[in-house]
Write a structure and sequence with these properties.
Number of strands: 9
Distance between the termini: 75 Å
Number of helices: 0
Structural class: mainly beta
Strand content: 35-45%
Largest sheet: 5 strands, mixed
Order of helices and strands: EEEEEEEEE
Length: 128
């Protein structure tokens, strides 16, 4: 018999018996360029390899920023390689630090988020 005030009695399921999430959150497996990388090419495509298909990616949820200014580019997802990609419209400035931010709007098919992720890299000389 269950007690309605939140306590459990005979035949009542324990709150700890609740089923675990059917699907875990999306995991970031590896970023390219790696966090802290230096000498990165000024035309580098930024990749975020994840462990499953994701949705909700766009230029607001996958942002590359250098010297406080957003870099403009296209964001897409390649299902065969499980890679989110940021392709800049123009090359990065040479010898400049950049930060990559991935927002919580990126989720798997069940709505579980990739979660906020951030990493940084520094470009090398502008040799293009």
């Amino acid at each position: 018999m269950c007690i309605r005030n939140g306590a459990t009695g005979a035949g009542c399921p324990s709150p700890l018996d609740a089923a675990p999430d059917a699907e875990p959150p999306v995991n970031l497996i590896s970023p390219v360029p790696a966090d802290g990388a230096t000498g990165v090419a000024v035309d580098q495509i930024v990749y975020a390899t994840v462990d499953e298909d994701v949705y909700g990616y766009d230029s607001m949820s996958f942002v590359v920023r250098g010297d406080g200014t957003d870099v403009f580019g296209d964001v897409d997802f390649v299902p065969s390689t499980k890679q989110l990609r940021f392709v800049p419209f123009y090359q990065y400035r040479g010898n400049t630090g950049y930060t990559v931010n991935i927002g919580a709007a990126i989720t798997n098919g069940a709505g579980y988020p990739l979660g906020v992720r951030q990493w940084s890299f520094t470009t090398g000389d502008d040799t293009l």
